[in-house]
Design a protein that fits this description.
Layout: E1 2-3, H1 14-18, E2 23-27, H2 32-43, E3 46-48, H3 51-54, E4 62-66, H4 68-75, E5 81-87, E6 90-95, E7 105-106, E8 127-128, E9 136-137, E10 145-148, H5 150-156, H6 161-164, E11 171-172, E12 193-194, E13 197-198, E14 200-203, E15 206-207, E16 219-226, H7 230-233, E17 240-246, E18 254-262, E19 266-276, E20 283-295, E21 302-317, E22 320-334, E23 341-342, E24 368-383, E25 388-408, E26 419-446, E27 449-477, E28 503-524, E29 527-548, E30 553-558, E31 561-574, E32 580-591, E33 606-617, E34 623-641, E35 649-669, E36 672-687, E37 691-692, E38 695-697, E39 708-710, E40 714-715, E41 727-736, E42 745-754, E43 757-758, E44 766-767, E45 770-780, E46 791-798, E47 806-809, E48 813-816, E49 821-829
Parallel strand pairs: 3-6, 14-17
Antiparallel strand pairs: 1-7, 2-4, 5-6, 8-9, 10-16, 11-12, 12-13, 14-15, 16-17, 18-19, 18-49, 19-20, 20-21, 21-22, 22-24, 23-48, 24-25, 25-26, 26-27, 27-28, 28-29, 29-30, 29-31, 31-32, 32-33, 33-34, 34-35, 35-36, 36-41, 37-40, 38-39, 41-42, 42-45, 43-44, 45-46, 46-49, 47-48
Subcellular location: Cell outer membrane
InterPro entries: Beta-barrel_TonB, Beta-barrel_TonB_sf, Plug_dom, Plug_dom_sf, Secretin/TonB_short_N, TonB-dep_rcpt-like, TonB_sidphr_rcpt
Keywords: Cell outer membrane, Ion transport, Iron, Iron transport, Membrane, Receptor, Signal, TonB box, Transmembrane, Transmembrane beta strand, Transport
Length: 830
């Protein structure tokens, strides 16, 4: 999206009106857009400008004590640009001639210093806090960072995190455990595979372990940081993390309500309102809410949710800011259904044909996922002077879940080809998480070299109190299911009698992590060198009790555990004058492991080590970001069998992931937006003493299961990781008709290709590749009639062709992908 502004001459500058205090400035001669970023950091005055008028301009050097207006005047000397007041602490740049209409400007407020946590502009975000915990242009960070902007989420009408990440390179969001049955079970759940490893999820830079997912109605943007991130965030898998930014009060008033509808009896209503509370605007609020009800593509599985997220921003003075955010959701039925279906009947031919997406392997009236979750967060910032800022973020989360379900038992179909054994579980659980991050950010110079240094400490405390009850259930005919014959046998009061297969587990877990970290971003002309290190101390205390009613036995275990780890990162980027920025980095990560070796020594954390090299290109005069990267990750200290001591493990295992990613995010014109990406990822067990047992599809065999045969154990070393596509590519285009009678009408179209994956660690059979198509349209009724201003209609269809596909498999069962989903929406803003 773009906007237009008119040149006005003779206006007094904002600096002269509101910022006459003398400050110390030290800004070298450089491209003007970089100089304006330094000016913002040292003065606090936002500068708005059309991209094209500053694309080729260079600033003069300034140094010394002066007022902000004097500093800006000197920066602009010789550029042919002037400035005028647009607000208490904001100015806009204009060409030094009258009567000129300026070209496109970025619409997030048209500020040169874009918010690093805001919605982004179109499909492009320029700055981020992720990866460095400082407000940094993405082109200066020496690793891959991709931003899913608010505009992208709106155009695609995403209903959960998996849908938001479908077009993001380096991450597989359709895999094992995802909500692929058409439920909109919030903004999380399941396992996301990032560069071959499971992702960790963060909210506003703090780790989140809540079992209740955020709703997309409360999210401003989503960022993926590919590669090791422990140096800033502590324990995390080497593949990277996902960071979600909560909505906060907006600068401009916001009033929006929507009603939605879709297949599977979906009905939804939302509201999102933000405005200032005081006339000066130093106190603002925002409140968003949602209510939704729908069935899913799986029979007897439903989704119902209500939620609200209020937030307040208090600008205490021109140096101090405090933001408070709350969030609460209640989900009596969360639509989750991750049960496998048999591989024979989905991936392979079944006795009576292919199994329906609608097949429910559970028990009506018994299967249910009920959950509620709440969080409170504050973000505090105080700028002592132009050189030093203190920032702190705190969040407390609490979730309660009560899951009861019957689903497919591990193993193949019975020999008759229609009977599938099942198992029953009941899992009530409560979790509490508190996280705090405090750090100082310093901006200073050593001669010609500029530094942005950060030193901080963060803390994470997690408590879980859960129960787990298990029992076998009656089998089900997958072609003619008959329900109602299930009786739970968990062996505790009120749940039936005990049997030989039932057992129960009670457990409490406490995790604590404290990390101290530092980082320095060193800039000299176009070169940025990023150096950082971190020391973490991690402790865990687990208590559990298992009971076996049939034998009358029980066991109790406790496992206190503590460890520490040092991680670091070094990287460099060099930004050329025309916008190309090559980069290189080395980074490490860690993940704690519990248990001991044969001598009783505690296991060390796994260690992730990555080399990454790439190119980022932010062309002048064209609102786009292009990224290409190549990476090599080794995860060491992986547990593997001890060949000298059967039943014990040693830490000589290793997994290796290597590949490359390319992506493009572009606002080509005010009417055309494009996303494109390609990912290649080769992930395998490069060192291991373990073996794995393969299952094979054999049309002549019924020995181990209908057409599934168990083979002899094979070495794990050299095998590819299962459920990780080696190739993925995607393209999404949104186009708005610029004029004519259909002005206000937009169309979009997307395609997603996911290459084949191995179904198991033995690599005995593959899950075929699949390609899916998405489409949609949007119409702004206000373009047709002024009295309809603010009314917008939208329709989105994912998996347009209703393709039947398998996302991933286990030993002899598979997950089915989401069928055609149709979602419509009417939105009104005023």
């Amino acid at each position: 999206m773009t906007s237009t502004c008119l040149v006005e001459m003779g206006g007094r500058s904002a600096a002269a009106q509101t910022a006459s205090a003398t400050r110390h400035f030290s800004i070298p001669a450089q491209p003007l857009r970089n100089a304006l970023r330094d000016y913002f950091q040292q003065s606090g005055v936002q500068v708005a400008y059309p991209t094209m008028i500053a694309s080729d301009a260079r600033s003069t050097a300034i140094s010394g004590d002066m007022t902000p207006q004097e500093a800006l005047s000197r920066l602009l000397s010789g550029t042919g640009l002037i400035y005028r007041s647009t607000g208490p602490n904001s100015v806009s740049l204009l060409k030094a001639s009258s009567g000129i209409t300026l070209g496109p400007v970025r619409v997030q407020g048209a500020v040169a210093h874009e918010s690093p946590t805001g919605p982004g502009v179109g499909y492009v975000a320029e700055n981020t806090m992720s990866g460095t915990k400082t407000d940094t242009p993405i082109t200066e960070i020496p690793n891959s960072i991709y931003v899913v902007t608010k505009q992208q989420m709106q155009d695609q009408q995403v209903q959960n995190l998996a849908e938001a990440l479908r077009y993001t390179p380096g991450i597989y969001a359709e895999g094992m455990g995802q909500q692929t049955n058409g439920a909109a079970a919030g903004f999380g759940g399941g396992t996301f595979i990032q560069r071959g490893f499971s992702s960790s999820q963060f909210i506003d830079g703090l780790i989140s372990n809540s079992e209740v997912a955020l709703d997309p109605s409360f999210i401003e943007r989503v960022e993926t940081i590919n590669g090791p991130t422990s140096v800033m965030y502590g324990q995390a898998a080497p593949g990277g993390i996902i960071n979600e930014s909560l909505k906060r009060p907006t600068e401009a008033p916001l009033r929006n309500v929507t009603v939605g509808f879709g297949n599977w009896n979906r009905y939804e209503a939302t509201f999102d309102v933000s405005d200032k509370i005081t006339s000066s605007g130093n106190l603002k609020y925002r409140i968003a809410g949602i209510g939704v009800s729908q069935d899913t593509q799986t029979d007897y599985v439903r989704y119902h949710r209500v939620g609200v997220s209020p937030s307040f921003d208090w600008k205490i003075d021109d140096k101090t800011d405090l933001t408070l955010i709350g969030n609460y959701v209640y989900t009596p039925e969360d639509g989750a259904y991750s049960s496998y279906l048999p591989a024979v009947g989905t991936l392979f031919p079944g006795k009576y044909g292919r199994l329906s997406r609608h097949l429910f392997m559970g028990e009506p009236g018994w299967n249910n996922h009920k959950e509620s979750g709440a969080l409170f967060e504050y973000l505090f910032s105080h700028r002592f002077n132009s050189h030093l800022t203190f920032q702190q973020t705190f969040r407390y989360e609490e979730s309660k879940t009560n899951f009861s379900y019957v689903y497919t038992k591990y193993g193949a179909l019975d020999a008759d080809g229609v009977t599938q054994p099942r198992v029953a579980f009941a899992v009530p659980n409560t979790t509490r998480t508190a996280a705090l991050d405090s750090h100082l950010v310093g901006n200073y110079r050593t001669g010609e070299v500029r530094h942005t240094a950060i030193v901080g400490v963060d803390f994470w405390d997690y408590h879980s109190n859960g129960q787990y009850y298990r029992s076998d259930a009656n089998s089900l005919n997958i072609y003619a299911p008959q329900y109602g014959n299930f009786t739970p046998h968990f062996g505790y009061p009120g749940m039936g009698s005990a049997d030989a297969t039932s057992w129960s587990w009670f457990g409490r877990d406490t995790y604590d992590q404290v990390g101290v970290y530092f980082q320095d971003q060193i800039r000299y002309k176009g070169l940025t060198v990023t150096l950082g290190g971190r020391e973490d101390w991690f402790s865990q205390y687990s208590w559990s009790k298992s009971s076996f009613p049939y034998t009358g036995t029980s066991s109790t275990t406790t496992s206190p555990f503590s460890t520490k780890a040092f991680t670091w990162r070094a990287g460099a980027t060099y930004e050329l004058d025309f916008g190309l920025a090559p980069y290189f980095s080395y980074a490490t990560s860690f993940q704690p492991q519990t248990g001991t070796d044969v001598e009783g020594h505690a296991f060390k954390p796994t260690q992730g080590k990555q080399f990454e090299a790439g190119l980022k290109y932010k062309p002048h005069g064209f609102d786009a970001l292009f990224t290409a990267s190549a990476f090599h990750i080794d995860q060491t200290n992986v547990l593997t069998s001890d060949p000298q001591n059967p039943g014990y493990s040693i830490q000589t295992g290793q997994m290796t992931s290597k590949g490359f990613e390319v992506s493009a995010q572009a606002n080509v014109t005010r009417d055309l937006r494009i996303l494109a990406s390609y990912t290649y990822d080769d992930v395998r067990y490069s060192k291991s003493n373990d073996t794995t047992v393969p299952y094979y599809y054999d049309p002549t065999s019924v020995q181990d299961g209908y057409h599934m045969r168990e083979g002899a154990a094979v070495p794990l070393k050299g095998k590819y990781a299962d459920a990780v596509p080696r190739n993925m590519t995607s393209l999404f285009v949104n186009y708005a008709l610029p004029k004519g009678k259909l002005r206000g009408l937009e169309f979009n179209f997307g395609t997603r290709y996911v290459g084949w994956t191995y179904a198991n660690t033995a690599n005995s059979f593959k899950v075929p590749a699949f390609i899916l198509f998405d489409t949609g349209m949007r119409y702004d009724f206000g373009k047709a009639a002024s009295f309809l201003k603010g009314l917008v209609g939208q329709l989105t269809i994912s998996n347009l062709t209703n393709r039947y596909y398998v996302t991933s498999c286990g030993t002899a069962q598979c997950y089915i992908g989401q069928g055609r989903r149709v979602y419509g929406n009417l939105s009104y803003s005023w």
